[in-house]
């Protein structure tokens, strides 16, 4: 073993999606810190991994950090895994890794499955830029604040199947029916599905098709919907600076992606 502590990516659904290096590492460490030992046990049994398992999740991560440090000082080797995918990416581990780094523990990451990468590989985009925000907040206002922050890039988030329709309807209200989105579910599993369409079409589709499993959503770069009152306020401010109606229509159109003719008519009024 070349290190003391290993961060190991595990499959996100299909158990065959694990690297040879990950299997070798998990077979050779003394302990595996798991988000849920019951989930990791299934993987361990499939690949004849006999390392001792113990839980390490968001509710006991600080406490487990002390246990792991003690084991490392005894010369033991340990791997960290989450239930699926890569630890620390919308999964526990940040508190633990911060503690280990402060104690000069040598850490090696074993790359592998990650839902974000699988999702991105199936969604054509105009640019490589994207923002990943983890699980989107439940609060409607907070959702829009975040998506407005990343309006000029493709924004990816995770969502519960129980809340997906509510979240998409919030996007519909704030950005209009033509907002382009992609929704993925059950990635790498038997019923894997990626839908790319307007938010209106996606809502209609999932209202008649059952939603199960993990959900990933991409909101393509977009322009937040502006109501006439907001546009008129901007026009008023520019008029006070003696800009002409033509100039105002060009400025607001370029800054906010609003139809230039619409702005021009409002400016004349």
Keywords:
269 residues, Methyltransferase, Cobalt-precorrin-4 Transmethylase, Domain 2, 11 helices, five-stranded parallel beta sheet
Task: Give a quick summary of the entry.
This protein has helices spanning about 20-30, 35-45, 60-75, 95-100, 115-120, 140-150, 165-175, 200-205, 230-240, 245-255, 260-269, and strands spanning about 5-10, 30-35, 50-55, 80, 105-110, 130-135, 155-160, 180-185, 195-200, 215-220.
Task: Draw up the topology in text.
Layout: E1 5-8, H1 20-28, E2 31-34, H2 37-46, E3 52-55, H3 61-73, E4 78-81, H4 94-102, E5 107-110, H5 115-120, E6 130-135, H6 140-149, E7 154-159, H7 164-175, E8 180-185, E9 193-198, H8 199-207, E10 215-219, H9 228-240, H10 245-256, H11 260-268
Parallel strand pairs: 1-4, 1-5, 2-3, 2-4, 6-7
Antiparallel strand pairs: 7-10, 8-9, 8-10
Helix pairs in contact: 3-4, 7-8, 9-10, 10-11
What is Rg?
Answer: 24 Å
Strand content: 15-25%
CATH-level-2 architecture of the largest domain:
3-Layer(aba) Sandwich
Number of helices: 11
Largest sheet, spatial ordering of strands: 3-2-4-1-5
Looking at CATH, the homologous superfamily of the largest domain is Tetrapyrrole methylase, N-terminal domain
CATH topology of the largest domain: Cobalt-precorrin-4 Transmethylase, domain 1
Whole-number count of domains: 3
Secondary-structure element string: EHEHEHEHEHEHEHEEHEHHH
Question: What is the residue-mean pLDDT, rounded to a whole number?
Answer: 92
Query: Residue ranges: pLDDT <50 for 5 or more in a row?
Result: none
Number of strands: 10
What distance lies between the first and last C-alpha atoms, to the nearest angstrom? 75 Å
Spatial shape: elongated
Give the helix level as a range of percent.
40-55%
Tell me about the largest β-sheet.
5 strands, parallel
Q: Structural class of the secondary structure composition? A: alpha/beta
């Amino acid at each position: 073993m070349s290190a003391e502590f290993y961060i190991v990516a595990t499959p996100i659904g299909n158990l065959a999606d694990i690297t040879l290096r990950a299997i070798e590492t998990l077979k050779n460490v003394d302990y595996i810190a798991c988000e849920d030992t019951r989930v990791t046990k299934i993987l361990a049994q499939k690949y004849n991994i006999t390392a001792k398992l113990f839980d390490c999740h968001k509710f006991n991560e600080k406490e487990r950090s002390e246990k792991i440090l003690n084991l490392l000082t005894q010369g033991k080797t340990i791997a960290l895994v989450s239930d699926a995918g890569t630890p620390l990416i919308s999964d526990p581990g940040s508190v633990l890794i911060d503690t280990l780094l402060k104690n000069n523990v040598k850490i090696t990451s074993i790359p592998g499955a990650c839902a974000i990468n699988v999702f991105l590989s199936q969604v054509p985009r105009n640019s490589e830029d994207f923002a990943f925000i983890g699980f989107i907040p439940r609060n409607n206002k907070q959702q829009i604040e975040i998506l407005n922050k990343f309006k000029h890039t493709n924004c990816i988030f995770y969502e519960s199947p129980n809340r997906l329709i509510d979240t998409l309807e919030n996007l519909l209200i704030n950005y209009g029916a033509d907002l382009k989105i992609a929704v993925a579910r059950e990635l790498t599993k038997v019923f894997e599905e990626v839908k790319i369409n307007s938010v209106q079409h996606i809502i209609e589709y999932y209202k008649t098709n059952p939603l199960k499993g993990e959900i990933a959503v991409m909101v393509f770069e977009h322009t937040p919907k502006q109501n006439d009152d907001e546009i008129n306020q901007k026009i008023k401010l520019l008029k006070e600076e003696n800009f002409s109606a033509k100039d105002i229509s060009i400025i607001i159109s370029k800054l906010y992606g609003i139809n230039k003719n619409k702005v021009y008519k409002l400016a004349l009024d």
